[in-house]
Amino acid sequence: MTLSQLALLFTAKTDLRPSKTNLSFFVVCVILALIHQLPLFTPSTHIGGSYDRRYEAVAEAFRRNFYEGREREGASLAVYHKGQLVVNLWGGYADRESDRNWQRDTTTMVYSATKAVASLCIAMQVDRGLLSYSDLVIKHWPEYGQNGKENTTVEDILTHQAGLPIIDETITLADAKDSKRMAQILERARPIWTPGEKSGYHAITFGWLVDALMRKVDPKQRGVKQFVAEEISRPYGIDFDIGVSQDQIHKIARMTLPGFMEHIKETLIDLRFLGMFAIFYLRPPNSIVQKIYENPSWADIRAFNSPELQQLDLPSVTGVSNAQNFAKIFALASNGTLLSNLTFELLKTPTIDYWHIDEVVLYPLVKGYGFFYEKHPTIVGKWLIGHYGYGGQSILVDPEHQLVVAYVSNGLKLGTGELCGTYQRIQRSLYSIL
C-alpha cells in the first residue's frame, strides 16, 4: 500500500470529527505521500551514450532514475556481456551547482569498490605463483608477525579477519602518503581479535594491508597503484587510477551527500532503512565504527572533494574511474585476459558464506578473496562477485551469464548494494531480459 492510499484509507475509515489527533495524523500522511511521490530535485534530461537495443529495458531504467528525480547529480552505467560492451550510458550533472554535465570521460570516486581492484591485483599475483591465499603473511612480510599477528594468513587480510579494522596509533595524512611508514604502523599494530576468528569490515586499513603485502610479493616491489597502472590501465587503455594524477582532477565529478528530505523519501520507499538507522545511531560511543571515524580523522567522506585526498594512494577508497572503464577491468578479468580460468573459477565461490554478523557493520556480509558476494538473482546456489562502495558505487560480475555491470554516481545515495534503489532498479531490469 502506498502512502497516498494510506491517506485515502484514513479519510474513509476514520472518524473525522474535528480533533487535533485526527487532523495531525491526516496532515502527516498527506505530507509523507507527497514526499514519496514528488521528485526532490529538478530532473535532468541530459543522457548520453549508447546501448544494444536488446537492452532497452536497462536503458529505460537508467533514464527513469533521472526523470523521476532519483539521481540528484550524475551517474554512469556500463554492462559487458561475453566481453562485449552492450550498455555504456551516462547522464545528469558532474556538478549541478555549476551546471556542468556528465560527459563520456567524466570520472568519479568509487570509494570502497576500489577494494575489488586491489583484490584483483592480489589474485593476479596468486595466478603468477608469487603467493597463495593460504600463506601466512609472515612468509612474505616477516615484520608483520608482531603482537599476536604471526598466524594471520593472506586470506585473513582479504576477508577482513585480520583484526585490524582500527589502529590505536594515530594516522596522519603525512603517514598515509608514506607507504613505508604505513607498513611500520601496521607491523606494530595489535589486533582487536585473534586473526582468523572473526570478520569485521576493514573499511580503511584494508587498502594499506593489501598495498604493503603487494610490495613484498611483487618482483618490482610495486604497490597496488603502480601495479594497476602498469599491468591493467596502460596496457588495455583503461581510465582507472588509485589516487588520480593532478592533470586528471578536472574530470572528477563533484560528490554530494543526501539531504534530510532524501533520507525521509528513501526510507518511505524502502523501510529497511529504519533498521540501518537503528544500527547506526544506537551503536555505543566506543564502537569500532566510531573509532574508524576518529582515526584517521581526515578520511571524512565529505572531504573527498579535496584534490589532496583525490590524489591520495589508498587502495581501499580512492579509486577514480567511470562505469565503462571500471567494468572493462572485470570483463578482462573474467574472460581469461587478466586471470587464468583456474584462478577465476576459484573466485566464484566465497570463503565466508555462513551466517554471521560482521563485527563492524553489524550486518551479514558474504566475503571471499577480497570480494563481496551476493546471491545470484535467478540461479540457486550461484553468486555475483564484486564490491560495493559508499553512496551506491558498484561493480558486479555474473560468471553464469558472463556479465559485468558497473554503476557509479556523484550524487551519493543513502544506501548501497541491496539498499541502493537506483542500482537495484537497473539490476532488476537487466535480469528481466536475460
From TrEMBL:
User: Looking at the Swiss-Prot or TrEMBL record, what is one Pfam family this protein matches?
Assistant: Beta-lactamase
Provide the alphabetized UniProt keywords.
Membrane, Transmembrane, Transmembrane helix
This protein's record includes keyword Membrane = yes
Gene3D superfamilies, alphabetized: DD-peptidase/beta-lactamase superfamily
List each copy of the Beta-lactamase-related domain by range.
63-414
Q: Which residues cross the membrane?
A: 21-41
Coiled-coil ranges per UniProt: none
Any signal peptide, and if so, which residues?
Answer: none
- Database matches in InterPro entries: Beta-lactam-related (IPR001466), Beta-lactam/transpept-like (IPR012338), Beta-lactamase/esterase (IPR052907)
What name goes with this protein?
Beta-lactamase-related domain-containing protein
Read off the lineage from the record: Eukaryota, Metazoa, Ecdysozoa, Nematoda, Chromadorea
